[in-house]
Amino acid sequence: MLNFIVNIRSGNGLGSKNLNRIIAYCNKNNIENTINITNYPGHAIKIAKELSERGAQTIIAVGGDGTFHEVLNGIPSFEHTSLGFIPSGRGNDFARSMGIPLDPIQALNIIERGKTKNLDYIQIGDKRCLNIAGTGLDTDVLKRVAGRPSKITYLKSLLYCVRHFEPYDIDVTLPGEEKTSYKAIIVGICNGTQFGGGLRLSPRSIVDDGLLELIIIQMPKGSILPILLKFLRGKHLGLPITKCIQCEEVTIHPQGGRPVQLDGEIYENTDLTCKVVKGGLKTFEI
Fold first, then answer.
1. Whether the predicted pLDDT of 128 surpasses 60
2. Whole-angstrom Cα distance, residue 80 to residue 180?
3. Which of 33, 179, 192, 235 lies in the 20 to 30 Å Cα band around 108?
4. Which three-class secondary structure string do you get for the chain?
């Protein structure tokens, strides 16, 4: 039995189009399934929890990274449940970094084969993060594009926020080390490689190596525009203002109550007390 949790509004309607293709494919091939449509923010968490409690062995998230984030957080345990992904969002950053096909039937074929593997995820308090958690310029951009998928792109919002950006004061604490403070443009705790529709914040990240990549881009002395251009080209790792630290856990405290993002979802008044959960997610091998 395949249990689909579908955000039909994701990707400016792509979720709905993909669902029609999925239903037609399942009907043609006599694949037993349930279709569960999300109706409000957080609904996928509730559906995933209910399906898990009823013994669902395969749950498939159909949507963007936000839908994936909710379904990940709704499944209490992956001991008997596998999570599949059918990308249907605007950016599909996790899917792209993993090599999951953007064609819904090709993605479904991977799940049909039934060969599972284990991936890491990030535990942050009582929440899980699949791809990248962070704070800084990216959260300003995400707040600006929220609810306006057809009116403003991530890149346009990024350029706007650069012109109005004030650096984030953050404290970073690693195990066995004293707290260090930074004035930062972006801070990312990365399990995956990219966010923002293809911005490769952490190209060295590997989702099953048991490690997180902490990326801190500090505020330069001059204009941040040249830094932004290097960042857009993935050339930021070699800059003196960029720190790259491999770790298993870290705490990021944004001063002044600044928001944070987990898989592109905004959370207010939250410290990023992050720990990698090695092999904690059971999914399907590509």
1. yes
2. 41
3. 192
4. CEEEEECCCHHHHHHHHHHHHHHHHHHHCCCCEEEEECCCCCHHHHHHHHHHHCCCCEEEEEECHHHHHHHHHHCCCCCCCEEEEEECCCCCHHHHHHCCCCCHHHHHHHHHHCCEEEEEEEEECCEEECCEEEEEHHHHHHHHHCCCCCCCCHHHHHHHHHHHCCCEEEEEECCCCCCEEEEEEEEEEECCCCECCCECCCCCCCCCCCCEEEEEEECCCCCCHHHHHHHHCCCCCCCCCEEEEEECEEEEEECCCCCEEECCEEECCCCEEEEEEEEEEEEECC
- Tell me the C-alpha distance between 255 and 271, whole Å: 9
Backbone angles phi and psi of 169, in degrees to 5? -90, 120
State the pLDDT at residue 150.
42
Token pair for residue 17? 């189009």
Q: Which of 281, 220, 209, 196 is nearest to 246 (CA)?
A: 209
For 212-240, the pLDDT digits (tens) are 999 999 988 877 778 777 887 788 998 89
Q: What contacts 114, CB < 8 A, 6 or more positions away?
A: 284
Distance CA 42, CA 40 (A): 6
Residue that is written with structure tokens 């096909």 in the block = 101
Residue 29 neighbours by CB distance under 10 Å = 9
With a cut of 50, say whether residue 115 has pLDDT above it. Answer: yes
Give me the mean pLDDT over the 84-100 stretch: 94
Share of the chain above pLDDT 90, in %: 75
